Structure formats: structure tokens, C-alpha cells
Amino acid sequence: MDLTEKGREEAKQAGQTLKKEGYVFDMAFTSVLKRAVDTLKIVLGEMGESSLPVEYSWRLNERHYGALQGITHTEMEEKHGIEQVKLWRRNFDVQPPMLSEDDPRYPGNDPKYKDLKKEEIPKGESLKDTIARVLPYWHSDIAPKLKEGKKIIISASGNSLRALVKYLDNMGDDEVAGLEIATGIPLIYELDENLKPIKHYYLGDNETIEKGLNFAAK
Fold it and tell me: What is the pLDDT of residues 17-31, one digit of tens each?
């Protein structure tokens, strides 16, 4: 799915803000989903860092919403009711209806996932499931680069980022279920030598950050 015009503008602004604030990175990580990849390209282009090494992983993909994938929020509520949709979206461990393997939307039909084991291919995920696939990649690929002293940028989706924030901030299950990640605004984490957060913050003015959080909550 392509970025919207709003998404492209947010990515441009994020890149410009990072450049203005003097941020420089050694490498980047992103998912294999088009919007995350395109967002990263735009951000790095605005920073003048288009040649930065990039690693791609399906483990940073957005949460897979199973049989709800590709259905608008309004359509979900009309078909299943507001409370059921809220339960699927906001409960930590409630899974959506699963996709069947003969469904055209099944990720196993996509060449991008041809190297995955069958049990790794999601048919639908709760936030708990998403965290369970993101964290192994943090430990195996991202954390070692940070321990080498690399400064990294991650372009991913709301729920995969929530997984990382939950881990870094040692958040409880109920707490992370209500966590919102502002869209299109750089979220900075400063870590100590043990990769524990010293502090974290959004780059941008309060009005822009508030708008990003409100949009993420919809």
C-alpha cells in the first residue's frame, strides 16, 4: 500500500527535523512493507543520507489483522460492532479472526515471505503475538549494532514500535495496550551502555506531537 500524501509530507518533515537537530545515523532498520520502506527513503533523502546501509526484516512489519486485513475501521464497526472492534484493536492478547491459507491476503502467497517457515507466516496477530516476533530481531540484529556504538534509525509501524517501546520501558501488558505512538514524528531513545533508556522524547513542537498522537488513537 502506498503512502498517502499526508504520510509523504510527514516523512519529509521528519527528515528535515532530524537534519535540523543535527542527527546522524550509521545504519537503518525497516520492515518489508512498502509504506515503512518508502517513509525511510524519504526521511533519509531529506537528511542527505540516501546511501545509508539499510537492513530489512518482516519481523518489523505491522501487526497482521488476519481476516480484518484491508478492511476500513468503519467497515469493521458496521459488520462486527464498536465494542468488538475495540477489543480486537486494544486488548493485549485477543487475536482477530484468522486468515485461511487459501485467502488471497495470506502472506504465504507473497514472494517476500518465501524464505519463512510455515509457522512463522502470520494468519492474524494480537499485540502479544506481534511483540513475540519483534523482540527476537531486536536481540539478534538491532541490539548488537547498538552495543557496537552504532547510531540507528528504525522505520516501522505503530504496533511493531509499541513492541520495542514496551520492552525498552519495561511496560506492563495493560499499559502498552493503551500506548499510542505519534505518527510521522521522530521518537528519540537515548540508551546507556546496557541499552537501558536514559530518556526518550519526540522531536517537534507540542502542537505537531499532539496531532500525531490524536491521529494514532483513531
Answer: 999 999 999 999 999
